[in-house]
Amino acid sequence: MRICYDKHMTTRSSKQQLFLDMFVGTLIYAAVLGFFNDYTDILSTSSYSVTFALAFVMQILTFLTFRLKDVVAGWFKARPGKAAKVGLVFGVWFVMFSSKFVFLAVIELIFNQDVVVNGFVGLLVVIISMTVVQKLADLIYKKLA
Fold first, then answer.
1. Which residues contact 58 (CB under 8 A, 6 or more apart)?
2. d(Cα 10, Cα 55) in Å, to the nearest integer?
């Protein structure tokens, strides 16, 4: 998401953009996680502070996952041939799929009993929902330009 709060500002440094992306992403994730906590049995947190901390941790994990995906994709795109294309698809799929297990392990490690996620499928539903809301926010922002 590319956000500019100052209409006179024409460019942002990469650090400023990272801050805005992480800040807005964390707020979006906190809202989505709050709804899952309040209205479903998929996610349960002990307090809103824990929900917000979980949103921040998941935003960082998502950022790192997409960075790793870009590295893997770049490596395969630099290679010629059909095997590289197959490797690209499998490599990106593997990073995106296996990252959910890393998410579950990190959540368990950091939050222990304060956060309960009902399994891999539950986490997948939460992550897909957060991604959809993030993409909708990006689309609305772009349409308003």
1. 29, 33, 103, 107, 127, 130
2. 30
The predicted pLDDT at position 123 comes to 83
Q: Please count the residues of the chain.
A: 145
Identify whether the C-beta of residue 27 lies closer than 8 Å to the C-beta of residue 51: no
Nearest to 128 by CA among 54, 39, 57, 58: 58
Q: How far is residue 132's CA from residue 69's CA, in Å, rounded to a whole number? A: 18
> Which tens digits make up the pLDDT trace of 27-79?
999 999 999 999 999 999 999 999 999 999 999 999 999 999 999 999 999 99
Q: Which of 136, 144, 131, 58 is nearest to 99 (CA)?
A: 58
Burial of residue 130 (number of CB atoms within 10 Å: 0-12, 13-18, 19+): buried
Q: What is the longest distance spanned by two Cα atoms in the chain?
A: 52
* DSSP 8-state secondary structure symbol assigned to residue 117: E
Q: Which two tokens stand for residue 133?
A: 């809301």
Q: At what angle do helices 48-77 and 119-143 cross, to 10 degrees?
A: 80
Are the CB atoms for 129 and 46 separated by under 8 Å? no
Is residue 2 pLDDT above 70, yes or no? no
